[in-house]
Amino acid sequence: MIQKSLKRINSKIISNKTLKKTITIHFCSKFSEIEKILTTANYSFLKQLNFNFNYGNYVILPDINGKISSVIFGMKKTRKVSKFLIGSQLSKLPKNNYLIKNYPKNENTFELILGFYLSFYSFKEYHKRSKSLKKPTLNLPNYKKKNKILYFAESEYVVRDLINLPANILNPNYFEEYVKKFSNFHNTKLKIVCGKSLKKDFPLIHEVGKASSNKPRLFELTYKRSNSSLNLTLIGKGVCFDTGGLNLKSGFGMMNMKKDMSGAASVLGLAHYLIRLNLNLNLRILIPCVENSLSEKSFRPGDILISRSGKGIEIKNTDAEGRLILADALTYSTEKKSDILVTFASLTGAARVAMGPDITPFFSTCDDFADLLKKSGDKVFDPVWRLPFYKDYNKELSSEFTDLNNAPLSGMAGAITAALFLKKFTKSHNMFLHFDIFGWNTKSKPGKTYGGLMQGVRSLGTAIEEKFFN
Ligand code: BES
Ligand code: ZN
């Protein structure tokens, strides 16, 4: 559970105290920069290698006793270099204390450290044998943002682990146990709604989840600080598996649908980060948690469901289930005041088609905050891009039989119409943000393993810090 994720991060592998026995890493782009630093033997060794100083290439040099004496790291950029490359390369060094003191001014130390932490992530729980490698330690004297990066790394481990857990393990029952442990860990209040109360008070969550023998429920976590200056409400889509329901997905479309709870994972990741930072805020986290399954109890195309808000919804497609469970959670959230209201959800395939796996689309009712979010995202290597709540497309959400339909037939602008659908349940909140995340990395890259991926969390966490706690 949460401790399992956190235990795998050793915060000590980054040290900002001055350590004694260290091996210096020299970051350089040409021979002339190191001629005076190295021994003649080492220098001629590098020459013989014809070392090219390309970005991220490195050579470990020995002293006369065969011990490691220094490391030369290439910094020459010949083409576009990938994010987190240096941190990832550093993570491959053999166990030892390494001193980083001349990291070039135009390079990003935040990227280096975050990349370093994230490069040790693996999801090996279900391998018969897995051994953990001995890790190197990086010594960056006086570096100030160490904790911020560490907490981001922790959140990322928590989120990736949750997404990577398969649906035969992470079902609504298991998720409840997880949330209980999470709540204990962070000392938050936890309320769980299920059974008859769920059916009565959150009819859409009940309808979507009722086909599964793993019963639907709603988790509500509350974290309160005295004299808090900010009330933040986070809602995450917790569909533990999305078959599509009676509008069954294809085999290919269903392949990665264990990740359909990535919104829920993200809000827990963001909460973890904000609480770890000890920010003076009140947090409320809502997670509608279901399996969108097939059985005789499944809700059907054509069904008319009455939501918590009283609005009727005609089901055009049972695969557009995320917006339904979020709608009831949103209505509930507006019954108490919040300064910022946020949803994180793997809501539409259209968002993925528009942005691909690297950029997270988001919607915002507040222009200033949207601008800040974009800038913050770039700063913390979590790119986000704003899409519009384009009012005219509301037409698509009408129904011949009731107030709304859940899946416009035209299929156009799917991410926008889904966001507009959610917005209808926010009582025109003046700071409503919605992230339509993908939550998955399709190809292994430096600092990013294949599988579960945290998106939008670093952007939003940073934007909140800058706007409210600076
Ligand atoms: N979980 C999916 C969205 C999704 C699919 C996210 C693939 C990421 C990758 C969601 O529940 C869904 O199936 N949405 C439908 C909505 C449609 C029926 C209006 C979609 O996007 O196809
Ligand atoms: Zn679906």
Quick description:
The protein is an alpha/beta fold and 470 residues long. The chain has helices at residues 2-7, 40-49, 85-90, 109-119, 146-164, 172-186, 195-201, 203-209, 251-254, 262-276, 322-333, 349-355, 367-379, 414-423, 457-468, and strands spanning 14-15, 23-28, 58-62, 68-74, 97-100, 137-139, 189-194, 217-223, 231-236, 238-242, 282-292, 304-306, 312-314, 340-345, 360-364, 384-386, 404-405, 432-436, 440-441, 451-452.
What are the salient characteristics of this protein?
470 residues; alpha/beta; Leucine Aminopeptidase, subunit E, domain 1; Aminopeptidase; 2 domains; 20% strand; binds ligand BES
Biggest beta-sheet profile: 9 strands, mixed
Distance between the termini: 33 Å
Helical percentage: 25-40%
Quaternary state of the chains: single chain
Task: Indicate the CATH architecture of the largest domain.
Answer: 3-Layer(aba) Sandwich
Commentary on this structure:
Helix 8 packs antiparallel against helix 11 and helix 10 packs parallel to helix 15. Helices cover 33% and strands 20% of the residues. It has 470 residues and is of the alpha/beta class. It has two domains: 11-144, 3-Layer(aba) Sandwich (Leucine Aminopeptidase, subunit E, domain 1), CATH 3.40.220.10; 148-469, 3-Layer(aba) Sandwich (Aminopeptidase), CATH 3.40.630.10. The radius of gyration is 24 Å and the shape is elongated. It has helices spanning 2-7, 40-49, 85-90, 109-119, 146-164, 172-186, 195-201, 203-209, 251-254, 262-276, 322-333, 349-355, 367-379, 414-423, 457-468, and strands spanning 14-15, 23-28, 58-62, 68-74, 97-100, 137-139, 189-194, 217-223, 231-236, 238-242, 282-292, 304-306, 312-314, 340-345, 360-364, 384-386, 404-405, 432-436, 440-441, 451-452. The strands form four sheets. Strands 7, 8, 9, 10, 11, 14, 15, 16 and 18 form a nine-stranded mixed beta sheet that branches. A six-stranded mixed beta sheet has the order 1-6-5-2-4-3, with no helix packed on it. Bound molecules: ligand BES and zinc ion. Residues 242, 244, 292, 319, 321 line the site of zinc ion.
